[in-house]
UniProtKB/TrEMBL annotation:
Gene3D superfamilies: Ribonuclease H-like superfamily/Ribonuclease H. InterPro entries: RNaseH_sf (IPR036397). This is DUF4817 domain-containing protein. It comes from the Eukaryota. GO terms for molecular function: nucleic acid binding.
Length: 225
């Protein structure tokens, strides 16, 4: 429990009022402040130590610490510039580690600047496939082919081991695992990419001599969670 200057003065007053006894002032302080039994601001030893230090220094105020180096304004400007340049890219994503490597600044310092000074927080994004009318013929042809095969062999589908679909981006330019958008507020919007990613959709197909795989040209939409 951190004591303010007012509460420290009250403890010192109770200490001298009760005849240099450390236990009684703590109990009295707990009753005056409505604290629960056993909940005291400090121990009797801590109170005596505070009194001895106040008598030595002539003040019972908290001494100021050794202090920490302030963050230079140039570092803040460099981080803000790097963040603005990253947000203007196609994906609009950035990371503290990338800024740290680019500017040769410790990553811990970059995170402090982003959160404490620039008030920016990381928001995770996810990619969503955008279906357009031109994609309908490919999917319709696959569905008709699948139904036609079922008419020939009704037990054909029972020989297929179905699993969750997995997307493999051939260019490897999108990885949403560590993809973040740094902003002051959640954008809550979709960013349409200006390029088309070719990916391979493996939907499931495992039989003795059957392997089912399709390739689509998929337009990518990034949505902020």
């Amino acid at each position: 429990m951190t004591l303010s200057l007012k509460y420290r003065a009250l403890l010192v007053k109770l200490f001298y009022k009760k005849g240099d006894c450390a236990e009684i002032p703590l109990k009295k302080f707990r009753l005056l402040k409505g604290l629960r039994s056993g909940s005291v601001p400090m121990t009797a030893f801590g109170l005596r130590k505070m009194i001895d230090k106040s008598e030595e220094l002539g003040s019972f105020d908290v001494k100021c610490g050794r202090g920490r180096k302030s963050i230079a304004s140039t570092s803040v400007e460099d981080v803000a510039t790097a963040l603005q340049e990253a947000s203007s890219r196609a994906l609009g994503t950035c990371s503290a580690r990338r800024i740290s490597r680019t500017l040769d600044i410790p990553v811990r310092k970059v995170r402090k600047i982003l959160r404490n000074i620039l008030q920016c927080y990381p928001f995770k994004i996810t990619h969503v496939q955008e279906l357009v009318p031109a994609d309908l013929p490919e999917r319709e042809a696959f569905a008709l082919q699948f139904l036609a095969r079922m008419e020939v062999d009704h037990a054909w589908t029972w020989d297929i081991l179905w699993a969750d679909e997995s997307h493999f981006h051939l260019q490897g330019s999108v990885n949403t695992q560590n993809c973040r958008i740094l902003a002051r507020e959640n954008p809550s919007k979709c960013n349409h990419c200006l390029f088309i990613l070719k990916r391979s959709l493996c939907g499931a197909g495992l039989r003795q001599h059957l392997s089912l795989a399709l390739s689509f040209l998929s337009r990518l939409v990034l949505r902020v969670l």
